Amino acid sequence: MNQPKNHILVIFGASGDLTYRKLVPAVFDLFDQGLLPEKFAILGLGRTDLGDTAFRDKMKEGIKQFALNKPDSEEKLNSYLEKLHYFSFDTKDPDEYCLLKGKLRELDEAYETEGNFIYYLATPPSMYEIIPAQLDEQGLSDESTGFKRLIVEKPFGYDLKTAQKLNKSLLTNFKEEQIYRIDHYLGKETVQNLLVTRFSNGIFEPLWNRNYIHHVEITGAENIGVGNRGGYYEGSGAMRDMIQNHLLLLVGLVAMEPPALIDSTNIRNEIAKVFHSLRPIQEKEVAQYAIRGQYIASNIKGKQVKGYREEEGVATDSRTETFAAIKLFIDNWRWADVPFYIRSGKMLPTRVTEIVIHFKATPHHLFADDESICKNYNQLVIRIQPDEGVLMKFGMKVPGAGFKVQNVNMDFHYSDLSETYLPSAYERLLLDCMLGDSTLYHRGDAVEAAWKFVDPILNAWKNDNSIPVHGYPAGTWGPDVSDDLIEQDDITWRYPCKNLANDGNYCEL
Ligand code: BG6
Questions:
Q1: Is pLDDT of 369 > 70?
Q2: Is 181 annotated as a binding residue?
Q3: Please, which residues have CB within 8 angstroms of residue 312's CB and are 6 or more apart in sequence?
Q4: CA angle at residue 327 from 197 to 226, to 5 degrees?
Q5: Pfam families annotated for this entry (predicted)?
Q6: What pLDDT, on the 0 to 100 scale, is given for residue 506?
C-alpha cells in the first residue's frame, strides 16, 4: 500500500467534539496500523486556551474511548501523543494568522514535513469562508512548496444559494483538486461495497433497471434523539442533516451508471449525473411527495422519553422535522418512473441504514393461492449498518402436498468473514486525503445539485404552514402517513430489525 507523504494535519476546531471523538482516534488507528508517514504531526487549533500537555491528556481519553484499535501499550499511545500539538488563537482575527504561519513553519522544520499541510475545518460552518481566505492571504494555500489540502466538514451550505456562495469563495482561495468535501457515509466500507456488489457481479447489473425493479427504498433510521445538539439541529432538521447529503449519496450510488474507471473523476461524474437527473419537486407539489414529522414524548420499554420540543436548545413551538420521507424519481433511461422512497428520522425503533431493491413480481402468478408471495416481491437488502451484509429474499416451495410458497432469506453477514476489521469512516477518508485521493469526497457541482433538489421542499416547509408537521411517538417508525407516500395498497416500507435477516413488528431492536 502507498504511504502518504510526510505532512502536518492542521485541525481547526480542535477543542470540539469531532476532534475528540472521531478525528484524533481515527488517526491513531492509522498510526496503529503503520499507515502514517514516517514524519507526521497534528496541530490542533482552537480558542480554548490549552497547551500541548492538556490537549494530549484530553485526546488520550478520546483515543481510549473511541479508537477502534484500543492502544495495547502506554508506550505506543505516548509515542502517538507526542506528535500532537496545540496552538491557541482566534480564528476570527485576521491578524493572528501570521502567528499561525510562524507556528506551522516551526513545526514543519522540526518534523521535516516539506511544507505538506492538510487543513481540516472542524469548526462551526460560519468559519468555512473566513479560514480558507486567511490561509490564502498568508500564502498557506500555495503548493509551490508542498501540498496544501482543505477538508470541509458538513453542513456544506444551508441551501443552494449558500452552497454556491461557499463553493465560489473556496475556489477563490484553493483549487478544486485541493478541496475535500467530506460526507462520512462515503467512508463506510458497506457504502463502498455498493459499487462492488453492483459492478463485480454479472447477476445483478442486467436486472438493475426499470424493466426489473419495481421500486427502491432507502432508510437511515436512528434510535437516539438530538441529545445536546438541539441548538444545531433546530437550524437543520432531518432534511439538511441526513437527506441532502447521506441519503442522496446512497441514491447516487444505487442509481449511477457503471463508471468507465474506478477513479475520482469517473465515479464523481456518475454520481453528479444522477443528482442532475432527479426530477424536481415543485413547491406546490411538496405535500404530495414529502412528509415531515417530529417525535413526541413517549414511553419506550417502560422508560419515559422526552419529545423533541422538550430537548435542550429546542423551541417549545419548534416545527423542525426530526423525520422526513420523500418519494422521488430519476428521469433517465435506466430509472424512468421507478419510485425511490427515502426516509430518515431520529427516535425511531432501531438504528439501521439499509437499501432495499424491490424487484417486480413475475408476470403471471402460477402459485397465486398464496397471495402474500405475490405482494412480497423479490427483495435485495443491502445493509449499511448495523449487522452489515446483504440479504436476498425469494419464494420457496413449502415442503409437502400442493404448491404453497413461502418467502425465504439468503443472507451474507460481514461478521462471518474471518477478517472483519471494518475501518471507521473517518479513518478511511483521512487516509485517502493524505494520499491525495478525492474519490470518496464530494465534488462541488454534485453538492449544489443535491441542494437544488431539496431546496423547494425546504422552502415549502418554511413558507406553507398548511403542510403539517406530524407528531410521532418516540420509538415508533415515524408518522403513519409516511405509508401514504407508497400509493399501492399491498406495499409498505420494510420495518427492519437490528438483525439483517429479520423484519416486521416482532423482532429484536
Ligand atoms: C451526521 C448527522 O452527519 O450523521 C447526525 O449530523 C447523525 O445527526 C449522524 O446522527 C449519523 O451517522 P451514522 O454514521 O451514525 O449513521
A1: no
A2: no
A3: 228, 230, 231
A4: 85
A5: G6PD_C, G6PD_N
A6: 58
Residue 76 lies in a domain: yes
Over residues 298-319, the pLDDT tens digits come to: 998 888 999 999 999 999 999 9
What CA–CA distance (Å, rounded) separates 164 from 255?
Answer: 25
Q: What is the mean pLDDT of residues 224-232?
A: 91
Catalytic residue among 85, 215, 246, 358: 246
161 found inside a domain: no
What number of H helices and E strands is found in the chain? 16, 17
**Which residue do the cell numbers 459492478 mark?**
199
Mutational pocket test of ligand 1: of 241, 311, 347, 354, the residue with most ligand atoms within 8 Å of the beta carbon: 241
38: CA distance to ligand 1 center in Å?
A: 33
Helix (H, G, I), strand (E, B) or coil at 379: strand
Give CA–CA dist 108/112, Å, rounded. Answer: 5
The yes-or-no verdict on residue 505 having pLDDT over 70 is no
Dihedral pair phi/psi, residue 187, rounded to 5°: -85, -5
pLDDT in tens, 139-168: 999 999 999 999 999 999 999 999 999 999
Alpha carbons within 13 angstroms on the beta-carbon side of residue 453 total 31
d(CA 390, CA 143) in angstroms, rounded, equals: 44
346 in a known ligand binding site: yes
> What is the domain extent for residue 102?
7-153
Nearest CA to ligand 1 atom 2: 241
Give, using CA atoms, the residue closest to atom 10 of ligand 1: 222
Which residues does ligand 1 sit against, CB inside 6 Å? 154, 222, 241, 353
| Residue 353 CA to ligand 1 centre (angstroms) | 11
Q: Does the pLDDT of residue 504 top 90, yes or no?
A: no
Is residue 435 scored above 90 in pLDDT?
yes
CATH of the domain at 206: 3.30.360.10
184 is in an annotated binding site: yes
Q: Are residues 232 and 353 in the same domain?
A: yes
SS3 content of the chain, % helix, strand, coil (to 5): 40, 20, 40
Q: Are residues 140 and 191 in the same domain?
A: no
pTM of the predicted protein model = 0.93
**Span from the CA of 155 to the centroid of ligand 1 (angstroms):** 12
Residue 164 lies in a domain: no
Task: Quote the pLDDT of residue 26.
Answer: 97
